[in-house]
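User: My collaborator sent over this chain with a note saying "see what the structure looks like." That's all I know about it. Can you take a look?
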Amino acid sequence: MDVDGGSMKTVKIVTALDAESLSWTAAEHLAALAAEAIARRGRFTLVLAGGATPRLLYHTLATGRMVPAIDWSRVFVFWGDERCVPSDHDDSNYHMAREILLDEVAIPNTHRFRIPAELPPAHAASTYEQELRLFFPPQSEKSPQAPLEWPRFDLVLLGLGDDGHTASLFPESSALHETEHWVLPVYVEKLAAWRITLTPPAINAAAQIFFLVNGAQKAARVKDILAGPRLPDHFPAQLITPVQGTLTWFLDAAAAGALTLEDEDVEYYTD
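Assistant: Without extra context I'll predict from the sequence alone. Here is the result:
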């Protein structure tokens, strides 16, 4: 599978029986990454996603069994994208995460970096980018693994839309070709709505990226993205190819149903 930069990278695919077991598997992987990051650097930077499958993961993380597995006081949370609505709106990704997860665990309010989507879109995007640049100053991110011009999140969570979009990177959007900004406002024509999104380079600078996908309705699209021809303008999720990180797709059996074991650049795991 070709990725940007001209090198070949292995995609890890972790499969589970159904959506519930998938959420537990992803939660356990997330907890392990958090423990490792906190032990190494004293913090874990996590980018949250909207959507039904991430929502189930947040429910799982907020359960009694998972809560003590993570030192939530050292977790810093961010958002990969947001709808341009107030933070208490039912459509807000922040509102969903706060209601299901953040208010159920001991994450300090000062560790929650929401996108100020109640502002005009361009202002919201520039404000959020500035906040990220202050959190990830170049002098604190000097490592061979971290391009200095991009944020170095420990983990970015992503969902997958039926049309192949991820975050708010939609087919044919000019944001797909961004090379300078970390955050952009995007107008989604088919939704007649503005959204704010991390750009592909900002996502691809992460140490770990998890796609969370469940359901038979996503099987054909998963196959298009992982085993089909490279058409990132049509399937924006194909742009997610970490520069110095690991990409893992968490799929339930239904979402993985159209894949085969023929692609040598895909590693399969069953939990």
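A starting point for your reply to your collaborator: The chain has one domain: 11-270.
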